[in-house]
Amino acid sequence: MLNASNIFTLLKTSEEFLTLHNIKEAKLDAEVLLCSVLNIKRSKLFTMRSDSLTQIQLKQYEKYLERRSHREPVAYISGKSEFMGLEFNVNSNVLIPRQETELLVEEVNNQIKINNYKDILDMCTGSGCIAVSVAFSNDVFVTAIDISKAAVDIAANNAVINKVISRIEFLISDMFDNINKKKFDIIISNPPYITREEFKTLEQELLFEPKNALVAEDDGLFFYNKIAENSKEYLNNNGIIVVELNSNMSQKIVELFEKYGFVKIKIIKDYANLDRVLVLKNG
User: Fold this and answer.
1) I want to staple 129 with a disulfide (CB 3.0 to 4.6 A). Which of 83, 149, 189, 251 is the partner?
2) What's the first-to-final CA gap in the chain, in angstroms?
3) Neighbouring C-beta atoms of residue 100, cutoff 10 Å
4) At what angle do helices 129-137 and 149-161 cross, to 10 degrees?
5) Is residue 2 part of a domain?
6) What tens digit of pLDDT does each residue of 155-199 get?
7) What are the pLDDT digits (tens) for 59-90?
8) Which helix (H) or strand (E) is 150 found in, with range?
9) CA-to-CA separations, 215 to 211, 228, 278, in angstroms, rounded
10) 98 and 219 share a domain?
């Protein structure tokens, strides 16, 4: 039973509980989950150290901690995740937005400003974090697609929450299948790219995320190949492709796109100095 005499002692015993279950960020996770129960910003939590929870709040918090002890990601427990300073609803139908993917959005934003691009295609949109963030920061129109209706519903809801729904069209589509023969200035994608062998080595938290949004056939290259093979039909002459990379096979991915006539502009490395974002032009 947690010591719940006040928030200060509750957080201390919650951190100890999560640490015993080998949760790496036990202190942070305990705080974030409590903020979710109380529906407050984390910055406010430290002004409430002497406050207490109601019995209903305490039971909810204990349930959250129990779920986290079984390695369920905090974002799925709270139902929320932050990306590019915006809040997104998430559940187990979509991947949790990653900090590394912000590098992709930042590059897209730069390219839009430099080239005055207007029409964007976001493939494998998932939670919609890329499409929504790009539409939020730029005067553009985004077409966002995903094969999963559940994912498209979540993405559309996130566009409503962040007030950009009027500038995004969401489509259920298996890659290019349901896209009209429209031309785009930028094709963006953070596709499934983990190989079956890599999947076996993932940390437990990732096993809660949708496998079909993580794993790709053809040794992780299936979706990159689909994009490379078909993008010429949908990309303007001066258009670009920006994709997130599986850093373990970045050179293979570059060669795949070059085979279909695209020219590498650059590769952007992530915070761990791994190849993370590939930018190509229509050759």
Assistant:
1) 83
2) 64
3) 19
4) 30
5) no
6) 999 999 999 999 999 999 999 999 988 999 999 999 999 999 999
7) 999 999 999 999 999 999 999 999 999 999 99
8) helix 149-161
9) 6, 18, 19
10) yes
